[in-house]
Amino acid sequence: MEWTEALKRSISYMEAHLLDDIDGCDVAEAVNISPFYFQKGFSLVTGYTIAEYLRNRRLYLAAIDVVAGREKVIDIAYKYGYDTPESFTKAFTRFHGQSPLQLKGDSSKIKPFLPLTVTITIQGGSDMDFTVEKMDAFKVIGFSRDFSFETSYQEIPQFWSQFMTNCMQKKNTAEVQDVIESCCIGEFGVCVDDLAPQSKKFRYMIAGKYNGGPVPLGMDVVDIPALEWAKFRCVGPLPGALQSVNTEVFKKWLPGNPDYEMSFPINIEWYSMGDGSKTDYESGIWVPVRKK
């Protein structure tokens, strides 16, 4: 499905199921896109995670119900998916700046949050710095951790920081350190959407190319099949350069692209050697694609 159309359909789906217990995986399934790519793209394009969008829409509608005064607050809380009136009141107050009791009878204090309208300038990506390259299957080895779609932007940098600290302070065993050096662990950041859908998580690896040999305890190996990759070049200090190009991919290159669409639920960040804070530091984003 074309990316812009998928976003529009996802919003329609969420609007039709605001009173149901749905999450990002359900929405991705409804538009037939990998949960990893869909939730990542939705956040980059709209500025909201799926959970934030659903929560904000429900709290706006809850406020309308509170002002109308036809239902008890406890019934409104359950209606919009909260387990207790206390948790509802806390979320409601944080969003609207007023408790349900304070808001009753005064609609002027409601914080509006209307359904999103997707309007994307169709670019097709012709002006982005990228190449498309076929690559044979290869393996990566590294440290894996499962991350929630909702908190990964905050937690993955912490994962990298811990990895760097362990290397610099020589906290790894000699066997692990040897693999880190021989396989250039840290050359890749690999997002792999291979977990069960009900887990609501994806796997992220700090990795390098696997050259064979023993796999130390605490490290994993992932097989990456032969694929065609769109490789986007990033120049500039981290993480800004990568984040900027990542946003451009989903906002400008992917929507309306006449030639390519995503083909496999994996995403690779490539890092060169050197100081990532330098203005000329080079990195990249690799996205598996196929011809339409």
What does this structure look like?
By secondary structure, the chain is an alpha+beta fold. It has two domains: 3-109, Homeodomain-like (Arc Repressor Mutant, subunit A, Orthogonal Bundle); 130-291, Multidrug-efflux Transporter 1 Regulator Bmrr, Chain A (Alpha-Beta Barrel), CATH 3.20.80.10. 39% of the residues lie in helices and 22% in strands. The chain is built from ten helices and nine strands. Strands 1, 2, 3, 4, 5, 6, 7, 8 and 9 form a nine-stranded antiparallel sheet that branches. The longest helix is centred in the first third of the chain and has 19 residues, at 50-68. The termini are close together. Mean pLDDT is 89; it is low at 121-126.
Work out the helicity level.
25-40%
Mean pLDDT: 89
Strand-residue proportion: 15-25%
DSSP strand tally: 9
Number of helices: 10
- Which residue ranges are poorly predicted, with pLDDT under 50 across at least 5 consecutive positions? 121-126
Reported for the largest beta sheet, the result is:
9 strands, antiparallel
The run of helices and strands is HHHHHHHEEHHEEEEHEEE
Span between termini: 10 Å
What characteristic shape results from the CA principal axes? Answer: elongated
> How many distinct domains?
2
**Any idea of the CATH class of the largest domain?**
Alpha Beta
User: What is the level-2 CATH architecture name of the largest domain?
Assistant: Alpha-Beta Barrel
| Structural Rg | 22 Å
CATH homologous superfamily heading of the largest domain: Regulatory factor, effector binding domain
Q: Predict the CATH topology of the largest domain.
A: Multidrug-efflux Transporter 1 Regulator Bmrr, Chain A
What is the structural class? alpha+beta
